[in-house]
Predict the 3D structure of the following.
Amino acid sequence: MKSAWERALEKLESSGIAAPRQDALNEDQRRLIEDARSRHRAKLAELEILHRKNRSPDPAKRHQEEENYRTEKRRLSQRLESSIERIRRGQ
């Protein structure tokens, strides 16, 4: 009898989507990845609090602040992804 995981993998592969990598992570890597994700969530929360606190009533300034906020969120996400990738490679 197949597990739900195996059935889901077969469904993905039949749809032409590659199965997820099966790289086994050790406990230290898992802990480091979870720590990186936890720090990322904290930084996002801080960024959002500051963004909401410092909103300008001027529409032009507010538009620029929104752009800066989205840029910073992307930067933080990219930093998280690169950190996770370094951890997976063992660096």
In short: Residues 40 and 76 are 7 Å apart (CA to CA). The longest helix spans residues 59-89. The chain has one domain: 23-89. Helices lie at 4-14, 27-53, 59-89.
